[in-house]
Amino acid sequence: MSQSIVLPKLLEVGEGATARAGEIAIQLGCRRVMIVSDPVMKTLGQVDQLKSFVNQAGVEADVFTDTVPEPTEASILPAVNKVIDGHYDGVIALGGGSVIDSAKAIALLAEYQGRIRDYSVPNIVTSPIMPLIAIPTTAGTGSEVTKVTIITDETNDEKLLCMGPGLIPSAAIIDFTLTMTAPERITADTGIDALTHAIEAYVSGKSGLFTDQQALLAMKLIAPNLREAVNNPDNKDAKEQMMLGATLAGIAFSNASVALVHGMSRPIGAHFHVPHGMSNAMLLPTITEYSIPAAKTRYAECARAMGVLMRVPMTTMQSLHYCWNLSRSIRI
Fold first, then answer.
1. Last residue of one domain, picked from the residues 121, 154, 177
2. Residue 47 falls within a domain, yes or no?
C-alpha cells in the first residue's frame, strides 16, 4: 500500500536558522507579513529580533501577540481581520503548538474567509492557505510540519479539528536555540508529547516505510536526551537533538496517524485543562500495556530505538517500567 507524504516546501534546520526568516519569506513571494506570536515571546525579545531579521531582508512586518494557549475562534479573529485589512501576503508563526495552530487558522481564514467550522472535519482543507512560515519554540508538537490545526468553538467548548494538505506550512525553521529558555515543565510536557507522536506513528495501522524511518529516528533522538534537556537546560546538544526529533516525529504522525493515547488525551485536555504532554504521560503506560499484545514486534522495535533493550521480543513489564520511569525522572 502506498503512502501520501505531505511536507513543507522548505525546511531550514540548525542553530541560528531564524535569521533567514526574511530571505525565506521572499522565496515564498511575500513582501508584507504578519508575525503571530504570544506575550512570552514578546517579553523575551524574540518577537522584536524576528521582526528585525525580516525587515533586514526588505520585508515589511507587523506583529500580533494576543494568541492564547488553547486557541479559540474568538482569539484568532482580530488577527484575521488585521491580515485582511492590512493586505498582508504572508504569516510567520513564532511560538509553541498553540501559536502555530493559531497561525494556520489565521492564514486559512484570511485566505478564504468564513468560519472555522466551515473547514473542520469531515471537511478536508485541500487548497493551500496563505504562505505560512512556522518557527517552533518548543520541541514537542511538530505543528510546524503537520497538516492539522485545532481551534475551539468558545460558544460550546467544542474542539474543531481542521486537517488536510492545504494546512501544511509553506516553510518551517527549526532553530533549537529558541528552546534554550523554555521552562522545565514545558520541556518535559512537550518532550513526552513528541515521543508519543513517534511511538504512535510507528505502531499505527497507517504506518509505512517512509514514516517508520522518521518515527524510529525521532525515538533515537528524543528518548536518550529528554531527561538531560529537562534536568540540564543549558545542554545545547540535548536541546538540538530534541528539536530535530520533535520535527521528525511530527512528519511521522502527520503522514501516518496518532493512536489511542492522543485519542484519549484530547478530551482530557478539553474537559479538565490538563497540559497535553502531561495527559499523554498519564495515559502512555496503561495504553501501551493494553496495546502490546496486538503489536508485540512493533513495540519491541520502539524499545530498541529508545535504547530500552537490545533484543526482541520485549516483555510488557519492560516497556511499562520505561514509560513510568521516564515520566517520574522528568517530574511528570
1. 177
2. yes
User: What per-residue confidence (pLDDT) applies to 309?
Assistant: 64
208 shares a domain with 116: no
**For 16-32, what is the mean pLDDT?**
98
> Which amino acid appears at position 329 of this protein?
S
Bridge partner residues of 61 (DSSP): 33
Beta 158-163 vs 148-153: how paired, if at all?
antiparallel
Coil, helix or strand at residue 35: strand
64 and 119 inside one domain? yes
Range of the domain at 317: 182-329
Give dist(CA 90, CA 233) in Å, integer.
Answer: 33
Give first-to-last CA distance, the chain, whole Å. 39
Do the domain assignments include residue 45? yes
Task: Record the cell numbers describing residue 179, joined without a space.
Answer: 528552546
Query: Residue for cell digits 497540559?
Result: 275
Q: For 150-171, how does the pLDDT look when each residue is reduced to its tens digit (9 = 90+)?
A: 998 888 878 899 999 999 999 9
Burial (CB count <10 Å: 0-12, 13-18, 19+), residue 69:
middle
**Tens digits of per-residue pLDDT, 168-202?**
999 999 999 999 999 999 999 999 999 999 999 99
